[in-house]
Amino acid sequence: MASEWCIGIIGGSGLYDIAGLEDEQWIAIDTPWGDPSDEILCGRIGDVKVRFLPRHGRGHPISPGELNSRANIDALKRAGCTDILAISAIGSLREEIEPGRFAVVEQFIDRTVQRASTYYTSGFVTHVSMADPVCPRLSEMAAKAVQACKGKVAVGATYLAMEGPQFSTRAESRLYRQWGADVIGMTAMPEAKLAREAELPYALVGMCTDYDCWRDGDAVDVAQVIAQMEANSDLARDMVAKFITKLPKKRAASPIDTALDDAIITAPDEHDPALLAKLDAVAGRVLIEG
Fold it and tell me: Which residue, among 215, 193, 211, 11, has the nearest Cα to 91 in the 3D structure?
């Protein structure tokens, strides 16, 4: 397994560049799953290779439900990423996670329904474990990076992924609170699932922009979200830079690096060659070793 870090940063609403990036170059990467959201900004911070992908594209032209998450994760894998730190704007479902606070996500409830959510279709059926859907070491380092930048952070949050692009009804928002969700967003699923299928450790830091609409009299509007995103953006850039500079010199192996080892169920003589060709990046390790 790789002993050097190559960090993929997926920038959500409000994070469109990386502070302190050197030798930067935008590179187009083709994938068998279609076009990713944008080219990938490649560079380094110190000795750490960095690959930055704006989730919605530069200028935010892509709607949450139309994101090609399969292409995005595949492109980051092809770009050499060993790990992914995702940044996302979120709404809060808890009084104590106020606008301006960051939340490091630990669990997900997936309510998306229209998105391609797996690489492994008929011909290479695979079931990865999502019991613990994020990388604990990346999450811990991300929380420390927020604190080091004097930001407020909640840890261990449960993220409700909704389809969108409309915001929630009050009934939905209150129901999600009853389910135990702490924050809500439109983009982390199936992104986190696909990262696991690609054997990429993944952590998500949410930037809280609003209280959703569960509180009496509150309603979410885009102007409010944009204003808080702009307020959050400097801290987000500083946090990402701090996260990268504080990484250990050597990358220790993660159990997620081998997530496919016990996940493939289709017998070898039933593998679909056309599908295997598309999996050369995300499942390349097991295909070579197999």
Answer: 211
Tens digits of residue pLDDT in 14-50: 676 787 889 999 999 999 999 999 999 999 999 999 9
- What is the total count of domains within the chain? 1
Report how far residue 1's alpha carbon sits from residue 88's, in angstroms, rounded to the nearest whole number. 28
Its domain, for residue 163, covers 85-289
CA 74: distance to chain centroid? 13
So which residues are the catalytic ones? 210, 212
Cβ proximity of 7 and 48 under 8 Å = yes
CATH number at residue 106: 3.40.50.1580
Q: How far, in Å, CA of 77 to CA of 249, rounded?
A: 21
Q: What is the largest CA-CA distance in the chain?
A: 60
- Whole-structure pTM value: 0.96
pLDDT tens digit sequence for 141-173:
999 999 999 999 999 999 999 999 999 999 999
Cα 279 from Cα 124, distance rounded (Å): 10
In this structure, is residue 105 part of a structural domain?
Answer: yes
